[in-house]
From TrEMBL:
<dbReference type="InterPro" id="IPR000281">
    <property type="entry name" value="HTH_RpiR"/>
</dbReference>
<dbReference type="InterPro" id="IPR046348">
    <property type="entry name" value="SIS_dom_sf"/>
</dbReference>
<protein>
    <submittedName>
        <fullName>SIS domain-containing protein</fullName>
    </submittedName>
</protein>
<dbReference type="GO" id="GO:0097367">
    <property type="term" value="F:carbohydrate derivative binding"/>
</dbReference>
<dbReference type="GO" id="GO:1901135">
    <property type="term" value="P:carbohydrate derivative metabolic process"/>
</dbReference>
<feature type="domain" description="HTH rpiR-type">
    <location>
        <begin position="4"/>
        <end position="80"/>
    </location>
</feature>
<dbReference type="GO" id="GO:0003677">
    <property type="term" value="F:DNA binding"/>
</dbReference>
<feature type="domain" description="SIS">
    <location>
        <begin position="107"/>
        <end position="238"/>
    </location>
</feature>
<dbReference type="Pfam" id="PF01380">
    <property type="entry name" value="SIS"/>
</dbReference>
<dbReference type="Pfam" id="PF01418">
    <property type="entry name" value="HTH_6"/>
</dbReference>
<dbReference type="InterPro" id="IPR036388">
    <property type="entry name" value="WH-like_DNA-bd_sf"/>
</dbReference>
<dbReference type="InterPro" id="IPR047640">
    <property type="entry name" value="RpiR-like"/>
</dbReference>
<dbReference type="GO" id="GO:0003700">
    <property type="term" value="F:DNA-binding transcription factor activity"/>
</dbReference>
<dbReference type="InterPro" id="IPR001347">
    <property type="entry name" value="SIS_dom"/>
</dbReference>
<dbReference type="InterPro" id="IPR009057">
    <property type="entry name" value="Homeodomain-like_sf"/>
</dbReference>
C-alpha cells in the first residue's frame, strides 16, 4: 500500500497545517516522482521554506524526518512505475473507500420503485447513469435517464437516483431540490457526508478523494462503476435469481 501518496491527496491530519507546511506538501505532490533524487536543501529552496519545515512536514506525514519520508516516497514511486502493480493497488485502495454496507438500503428502494425510476448524472456520471440504465434493463427494470430540470414535472410520484461522485455539483443539487418539490423521492450514489448524501432518503456512498496526480486514478468514474456493478449484482442475486 502507498505510504505517502494518498496522504498528500487526502491531507487528513490531526492538526491544522501552517502555510509553510502546505507549501511543502504542494511541492511534494507536484514533484512526487522526482523527490527520491532531490536533497532537502533543494526542496527547501524550491518550495520557499526551510529544512526545519520540511522535517516538520515529514513528521506530520508520520515519519521521523526527511530521510525516512524520502525512502517511503521512493517505495511509492517504484510501485507507480510498475503499471500493473499500481493499478491493482489503486483499485484495492478505491474498494477500501466504498461503504458496501450502505448499498443495502438503496437496493431495497430501487426494487420497490422499479416501475417508476429515474436516473440523473452529469458529465462522466451521465455516462455511468447510461451504463446503469442498460444494466437495469437487463433485469427488466426500465429506468429513464433524465437530463433537464423541466423533465421532472412529467414524472411526479417517481423516484430519482442521482449519481454524483462529489455530491456537491450545483446542477445535481438543483435536481435534488426540484425533485423534492414535486414529491419525487431522492436516492443517490455519491460521496460520504456530501450535500447529496445528506439530502437523500438512501445513499450508497464512498469516500474516494479527488485524485490530481497522474497514474493514481486514470478514470475518475472507476469507483462509481464498481458501485453500480455492486448494486446490479445484489439486485440480481436478491430479487431475480432462483436461490
Amino acid at each position: 500500500m502507498y505510504r505517502v501518496i494518498h496522504q498528500l491527496n487526502e491531507r487528513n491530519f490531526d492538526r491544522a497545517i501552517t502555510k509553510s507546511e502546505a507549501a511543502v506538501l504542494d511541492y511534494l505532490e507536484d514533484h512526487f516522482r522526482k523527490i527520491p533524487d532531490e536533497t532537502v536543501i533543494k526542496i527547501a529552496q524550491e518550495s520557499y521554506t526551510s529544512q526545519a519545515t520540511i522535517n516538520r512536514t515529514a513528521k506530520l506525514l508520520g515519519f521521523k524526518g526527511f530521510s525516512e519520508m524520502k525512502y517511503a516516497i521512493k517505495e511509492d514511486v517504484d510501485l507507480l512505475n510498475s503499471e500493473t502493480h499500481s493499478h491493482i493497488r489503486n483499485t484495492e485502495y478505491i474498494l477500501s473507500k466504498i461503504d458496501f454496507n450502505s448499498a443495502d438500503c438503496l437496493i431495497k428502494e430501487l426494487y420497490k420503485n422499479r416501475h417508476k425510476l429515474l436516473l440523473f448524472g452529469l458529465g462522466a456520471s451521465n455516462v455511468s447513469a447510461q451504463y446503469m440504465a442498460r444494466q437495469l434493463l437487463y433485469l427488466g427494470i426500465p429506468a429513464i435517464v433524465v437530463s433537464e430540470l423541466q423533465m421532472l414535472k412529467q414524472f411526479k410520484d417517481y423516484t430519482i437516483l442521482i449519481l454524483s461522485s462529489s455530491g456537491e455539483t450545483q446542477r445535481c443539487l438543483q435536481i435534488m431540490h426540484d425533485a423534492k418539490k414535486v414529491n419525487i423521492k431522492v436516492l443517490s450514489i455519491t460521496k460520504e457526508n456530501s450535500t447529496i448524501m445528506l439530502g437523500s432518503e438512501c445513499a450508497f456512498h464512498h469516500d474516494v478523494p479527488i485524485d490530481k496526480m497522474e497514474g493514481i486514478s486514470r478514470e475518475q468514474q472507476l469507483h462509481m462503476i464498481l458501485m453500480i456493478n455492486e448494486v446490479i449484482n445484489k439486485l440480481k442475486w436478491k430479487y431475480f435469481s432462483n436461490h
